[in-house]
Amino acid sequence: MRIALAQFNPVVGDIAGNTRKILELARTAMAQGADVLVTPELALTGYSPEDLLLRDHFYRAIYAGLDELEMLDGITLVIGHPARLGNERFNAATVLRDGNRLGQYHKMLLPNNEVFDECRYFTPGAAPLVFEQNGVKVGIIICEDGWSVEPAAEAADAGAEVIVSLNASPFHRNKIATRHEVMRYRVQETGLPMAYVNLTGGQDELVFDGASFALNKAGEVVAQAAAYDDELLLLDVVDGDIVAANLAVLPDELESAYRALVVGVRDYIGKNGFPGVLLGLSGGIDSALTLAIAVDALGADKVHAVMMPSRYTADISVDDSRDMVQRVGVKYDEIEIWPMYESFMNALAPSFAGLPADTTEENLQARIRGTLLMALSNKSGKLVLTTGNKSEMTTGYCTLYGDMAGGFAVLKDVAKTLVFALCRWRNTQGEIIPERIITRPPSAELRPDQKDQDSLPPYDVLDAIMERYVEHNQSAADIVKAGYAEADVNRVVRLLKINEYKRRQAPVGPRITHRGFGKDWRYPITNRFS
């Protein structure tokens, strides 16, 4: 028996388009001798349709797609899709063969943590499904089912000789190795080989990295699809085991994070039909990395960078911005903001009389820049990319309606230390970021001689505290016990808490860590818990 794993990038809600893509993949698989085509989880609708799942006419479109797929002869299809039976909804996989529906499996374990909210929509399944192909009995599980013992064990008890797992497993750093490890446990427990197929592409804040694979009975990875690219991975089952096939080389940790960001930008812009992007270029490292990602995702012709200097902007910031845009070849403009700033200050002078200067004046500069970018966005239709990083989002070192103004926050889940590492990695692929941008001390350049570390702990300390508190749910006391200065820990935790209202108003951005400031971060704004 030959199985084809259809690793591809659906568009949420485009059921007709996804159906056409599956048919195309099925015909290609048939031409390569495949007996079975397995799609990822909810491949027919894309993952996740969220509250589209509550609409009656959504299911009419789903069943029209299944009817079309059912007409294909010559190959067995295992299609991931939402199903509705009476008043209940299921995360399902239907087996289609030569105009017949051989059975439908319902996902047993519904994740309701991190970015997942499946208990809101689905009823858990209660029974395994095993079908026969060419004398081989194939059991089905769906995503979360594979992260616990019972569903795979029930498939084995029902007579399965090989297990196929349909997945919509979003990327975070080190996720591929974790998938291999967890699925190896299922193989060891059942004694059965496993084929694992995953989605690719970006969907709002989620990025799906593909990297479908197969494990033989010994738990060895005997087939591996590429990360981030669409692919048909062909697997042969011989004498009850999956034999060795293509083994793609997987990216290392930095390349994987960078490519996830590229895919997130590419699909958010492309799937939503924006003609391109705008971003404010400051001569600093965050905007430089954002520009590099945008160009790699969309091409230079769809990217417009705008430098908006003030009297506090260093000459080298302007020089480095000009240098980088020449290297990447994007459209570039410079707009001096100081005359506008002075006009604002003159208008506000009566109200500010007798009051000392403070962050108000700094934030006003950021808001002028945000207004200019949004005006250019309105005129051109291009989406503004914000350039703030996760360290800034944690501590509130970002300005509402200023540098936070925009439609997609590329670095929202990228800590400052990772920003530096990604810039250095990107330059190994072709040096497009001027070295001085990477080596200069970071500064917002909103007042004379300003440096980020004037008012924050060193970024390696800040980011370590942030990772422990945000991503691993450690308490402040536990972080202090781990060796971090109590003053630094308390400061970071306090800043995190009082700036929740800002994060709630931030644009969506791609998630690349175990826990980002998106669907998997749900804290009350009004909150007195200490």
Strand content: 15-25%
Could you give the distance between the termini?
A: 59 Å
Q: Share of helix among residues?
A: 25-40%
Task: Give me the count of strands.
Answer: 20
The total count of helices amounts to 16
Rg on CA atoms, Å: 26 Å
Provide the structure class. alpha/beta
Widest sheet: strand ordering: 5-4-3-2-1-14-15
Mean pLDDT reading = 95
**Major sheet:** 7 strands, mixed
Low-confidence stretches: none
Shape call: elongated
Protein name: Glutamine-dependent NAD(+) synthetase
Binding site for deamido-NAD(+): 363, 392, 502
EC number: 6.3.5.1
Catalytic activity: deamido-NAD(+) + L-glutamine + ATP + H2O = L-glutamate + AMP + diphosphate + NAD(+) + H(+)
Describe the protein.
- The protein has 530 residues and is of the alpha/beta class.
- The chain contains 16 helices and 20 strands.
- It has helices spanning 15-31, 56-70, 150-157, 175-190, 253-271, 285-298, 315-328, 338-352, 359-380, 390-395, 416-428, 435-439, 459-471, 476-481, 486-498, 500-504, and strands spanning 2-7, 36-38, 76-85, 88-97, 100-106, 130-133, 136-142, 162-167, 194-198, 200-203, 206-209, 213-215, 221-224, 231-238, 241-242, 277-281, 303-307, 331-334, 383-386, 408-409.
- A seven-stranded mixed sheet has the order 5-4-3-2-1-14-15, covered by helices on one side.
- Strand 1 (2-7), helix 1 (15-31) and strand 2 (36-38) form a beta-alpha-beta unit.
- The protein is elongated, with a radius of gyration of 26 Å.
- 46% of the residues are buried.
- Pfam families: CN_hydrolase, NAD_synthase.
- Residues 1-244 form the CN hydrolase domain.
- The active site is at residues 41, 107, 143.
